[in-house]
Specification:
The protein is built from 13 helices and 15 strands. It is an alpha/beta fold.
């Protein structure tokens, strides 16, 4: 599916938090707190009165334990009106791009003229889930106590340790696991590498390029303008070079190792979106224009190449609509280093992930799509690109793509 917007939607402000490694610099912050920081900064940078924001849509994958209405919590804490319509969306890794598409549609329909879209995730604070089924097949019993804490069996800790009661880590199961096939996305990546004859050494080499670009961009201050500091941290939590070497050695022979794949991370990102008419009325100079988006679905095992299909569909739709759009730069999420050579081949003629990608920076699931967009917009400004695309695959099988323009 695709949507070419009748009139481009204006991006008036954009911001992201640093990306924190698992249990790293943002490890004590909830997804809501990270979303709050991103929303507040995006609105401040847009110079739009928070009181005119009519809609907030935030992507979030692992919502267990966040409480009711995570998007509304973040919106309220960021200082927006309590009457602002808010909702959270979960399209796995594509959640933040789904949020952007949702807001673009709402603005085009005339239901809102000012919106915030983005995503937020804290993989470090995601809860553990107690499986309700005991080893003997019976259901684990507890008492319902309204809003109070639920009394647990006195020997629960022993039962968990002896595996009479199973626990699951929610990020892995809700974000990285496809129940119908009983497979983690990593397993599909390994199968794909074997089928295509891709050697682990090739993947490691490609991943190494991502680390180099991300470290160089950080040292040169390329990310500074897009990041809002959190807890005093104003840079991404990069993997130290000695740890990189250890990970590479430990993952030898694995085409989807901790070294050459993205790892779950913490972060938030947001953009302020306006109708063209609202931007003119407010005298807002656009940071960028959104021309359209596409979303494709596929079998879970085909997710690695889904971004290629999403970009092709979007570019074809824009061309058929007579929209001038020749992208020269692209941000494509590196869920796995396996994808880097695919992207470099399929997106030939475009600069791909000029500042590195998720292999080096980390992957805050529900925030990643908007993080990619924020990074793309700043890179386009720094290097003089007018047209660009952001794309990313998502678990269960599929991908999103969004087409943007930075006005001259």
């Amino acid at each position: 599916m695709y949507k070419v917007l009748k009139a481009p939607v204006i991006i008036a402000g954009a911001a992201r938090t640093p990306i924190g490694r698992f249990n790293g610099i943002l490890g004590k912050r909830s997804a809501v707190e990270l979303g709050t920081a991103a929303i507040r900064a995006a609105v401040e940078r847009s110079q739009v009165d928070p009181g005119i924001i009519e809609l907030v849509v935030m992507g979030n994958v692992v919502s267990a334990g966040l409480g009711q209405g995570p998007a509304k919590q973040a919106s309220d804490a960021a200082g927006l009106n309590k009457t602002t319509v808010c909702r959270s969306v979960n399209s796995v890794c594509g959640s933040a791009l789904a949020a952007i598409a949702d807001c673009a549609n709402t603005i085009e329909l005339g239901m809102a003229s000012a919106a915030v879209a983005g995503g937020m995730e804290s993989c470090s604070t995601s809860p553990y889930l107690i499986d309700a089924i005991k080893k003997d097949g019976s259901r684990f019993q507890c008492k319902l106590a309204g809003y109070k804490l639920i009394p647990m069996e006195p020997d629960l800790e022993r039962k968990i340790k002896t595996r009479e009661v199973q626990t699951k880590e929610s990020t892995r199961y809700d974000g990285l696991y496809w129940p119908p096939d009983k497979k983690f996305m990593k397993e599909y990546a390994v199968i794909y590498a074997s089928k295509m004859g891709i050697k682990p050494e090739e993947v490691d080499e490609a991943a190494g390029g991502s680390y180099i670009k991300a470290r160089k961009a950080t040292e040169e201050g390329r990310f500074k303008a897009e990041i809002v500091p959190v807890d005093g941290y104003d840079a991404d939590d990069l993997v130290p070079e000695d740890v990189q070497a250890q990970l590479r050695e430990a993952g030898k022979g694995d085409p989807a190792s901790a070294y050459n794949s993205s790892n779950p991370a913490d972060g938030g990102a947001a953009i302020v979106m306006l109708s063209d008419e609202k931007a003119r009325d407010l005298g807002i100079k656009p940071v960028a224009l959104i021309h359209g988006y596409s979303v494709v679905n596929c079998a879970a095992e085909d997710f690695l190449t889904a971004p290629v299909d999403a970009v092709r569909e979007l570019r074809g739709a824009l061309a058929n609509a007579g929209r001038r759009f020749e992208p020269t730069i692209i941000e494509a999420n590196e869920a796995f280093g396996l994808q880097i050579p695919i992207f470099e081949k399929e997106f030939a003629g475009m600069k791909v992930n000029v500042h590195g990608g998720a292999v080096a920076l980390g992957h805050p699931l529900g925030a990643s799509g908007c993080r990619l967009l924020v990074t793309l917009l700043h890179a386009m400004k720094q290097y003089g690109h007018r047209y660009g695309i952001v794309t990313m695959c998502f678990g269960s099988g599929g991908a999103y793509a969004v087409a943007v323009e930075v006005p001259e």
